[in-house]
Amino acid sequence: MNNVRPLTVVQTLPALQAGGVERGTLEIARALVAHGHRSIVISGGGRMVEQLIAEGSEHICWPIGEKSLLTLRLIPRLRRLLREQQVDILHSRSRLPAWISYLAWRGMPAGQRPRFVTTVHGMNSVNRYSAIMMRGERIIAVSETCRRYILDHYPKVDPQRITVIHRGIDDAEFPRGYRPPAEWIDSWYRQFPMLKGRFTIALPGRLTWLKGHHDFIELMSHLKAGNINAYGVIVGGEDPSRKQYAQQLRETIKQRRLDNIVFTGHRSDMREIYSVCDLVLSLTQGRSESFGRTVVEALSLGTPVIGYDHGGVHETLETMFPEGRTPRGDVDQLTQRVTDFIQHPRQVVRPNSYPLQKMTMETLTLYQNIAAGQRQP
To answer: Considering the entire predicted model, what is its pTM?
Structure first.
């Protein structure tokens, strides 16, 4: 990346609270700053803004992800910002921010527009609203699964506009064999004393039905009925719009008298949690995961993962831990597989196939190439 023209890049997304999209935004922002570019992020704010700014980016707090007619007022404001700040790349990562970005971008003279990039992070419902993610001059797909989804459901998209850039995991952040500090371990077992000395199975992810919590409850019920000494840890915060779902999960566990499941709530110390657990699960329901970041993070540390064998999780397990694949939605097979792992522990021997540096450099190279290329009329 030597001798390249410094770029001004704006990324837009609904908020910077938590999640894979948000983490990817910060990772690209950090890489831009490290290579001498100017990084601006527009979002509704959140707990990750402080880190973003500390790492050298600028943040503009606009309600660009709010589903309100008032959000349309941001279109001329964004157009003015793009012009005044001489933005080179406008990169949208979510549907509503992409609509605002696209309408602002289309309203500029062709020769004065930045280049418009979108990232398809997941397999959203197929409709006109979602189709905005296909309007990028270049479309980043976060996996081969995601690329196939685009081509299958949006056949008018030119395949040449799609670039697959897998999400990346920092080996320095998730090193093989990592062990948390003694202070962290002491704190963990003070909070959850029932986990000490038990085989611990983690299910990470926000509390939404897509993450497969009911299958997890069934699994833990089967293990308890089989007198298998294991504890399940549900790691993730409540979705503010789905509090009833979270309450339903707790009620189900209480009614079934499952004392082998605990909730941690939202956690920012996933590395440490993965490292003290014996097994991590990925049980995504309905639409498949587009990549499966939690799978790669856990495997990078050396913690085995069992996951439903579809979508992006299939891709990541296939390359890093194929013995962890299990048929989607088959709780009996899942129980057999988990029981086998408890009785015959597996070692993760393959290295991380998805390094963060590869993801950031491929993205920055795409920015440079499209910035130097011919503009769309």
So the answer is: 0.83
